[in-house]
Every structure is written in structure tokens, then in C-alpha cells.
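Q: A reviewer asked whether we had any structural model of the full assembly, not just the individual parts. We don't, so I'm hoping you can provide one. Inputs are below.
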Amino acid sequence: NAGVMQNPRHLVRRRGQEARLRCSPMKGHSHVYWYRQLPEEGLKFMVYLQKENIIDESGMPKERFSAEFPKEGPSILRIQQVVRGDSAAYFCASSPRSSGIANTGELFFGEGSRLTVL
Amino acid sequence: AQTVTQSQPEMSVQEAETVTLSCTYDTSENNYYLFWYKQPPSRQMILVIRQEAYKQQNATENRFSVNFQKAAKSFSLKISDSQLGDTAMYFCAFMKHRDDKIIFGKGTRLHILP
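A: Here is a predicted structure for the entire assembly that you could use as a starting point for your response.
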């Protein structure tokens, strides 16, 4: 099954450490989206990337968070100096069309990475 | 800004019954998409059904159908002949036409009881 792959599935960090979450989109997809899900909440958009390009990062906190999607390799969501409030499930999704999800509206999600900050 | 509201945090129904999940949204846009996504306990989100706002006909996918009321900004999901595998969180979602952000509601946790 060549679905959206996220790793690690679970990550525990102490306050002040760095967290790196990885996402490999479905084969042939070049658009990646990151969403954050807090407990008992819906998913909140964070960032939308194409290869080597950040298209929309309007949902990304201004500090400590960054994302990239290099020409080769997975997309990385990086959280520096984590705090307890960063504890959440982080979902990656990819879309099948060259123009993003505007044409189909369908996102294909990974199983998420659950970050716990102690 | 667009918002999506799901007023039912949790629901339970018996297997084989029909259940309707409510969703309302707020937007000033005329052209947009609406979705219902399912998140089973395994946590992988799956698209259940999609509705394009310019289409008057309600979308249907097997046992899943929607009641789209554009004027009322309402988009409910009906699950007929519910099955145990329908147990999941269901998220209503909105996307502006030609946009790339999907906005999700807080979800309704649905339990199908044997």
C-alpha cells in the first residue's frame, strides 16, 4: 500500500528539545499539507508545500515551527524548543493533482504522528 | 473567515439504524466544496463524501448521503443501515473554490452499537 507514510508514529520529547516529523506523500503526489489535531478538536491547517516551495504557511506558528519539502526525500515538519502545548497529533496529507486539491478537494491522509512533550 | 460547526459532540445508534450528523458552516463565498471525512480508531482520515456548492443535487455514496441546504448553510450526513465499522469520528469540512486549505469542524464521535 503506497499511501501517505508518516514517521515516527509516536514521539516523546522533553521541553526544549526538537521534534522532527517526516511525511512521504503518495507516489506521484507533489503537494503536501500538514495539519495539527489537538485533543477533542478538529484538524487545523498549518502549511501547504510543493517540492522545494512553501505555498501557504498561514496556519503555522511564527516561531519555532518550520516545514520543508525538498526535491528528494520526505517533507519535514520541525518544531524547535518544544513546549507542552505542542503535544498533539500531526497529520500529513497529499493531493493527487498537479494543481493541488483545488480540482478534486480530496486529501489523502497519513496515520499521523503523535507528539508528547513532557 | 470561514467556520464549520458540528453541534453534536457524540452520538450512539443501534446497528442497522439510520443516523444523521449535523453540520453548519459560515461563508460569504458562493463557490466552494463541502466534505465529510471519517476518522476511525486507527486515526487515518478517509474522505466519505464530497459536495460541490454549485450542484443542487445532493451527493450520495452507497449508504452515505448528504442533505445540502445552501441558503441555510447546512450540510448534514445521513448514514443508512449503519454498520459497526461506521464507528468513528466524523468531520465536516469546507474548502473555498480554488483554495488549498480545508477547514474542519470539531467532529462528531459516532458509536454504532451491536
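A: Points you may want to mention in the reply: The CA atoms of residues 93 and 109 of chain A lie 4 Å apart. The two ends of chain A are 34 Å apart (CA to CA).
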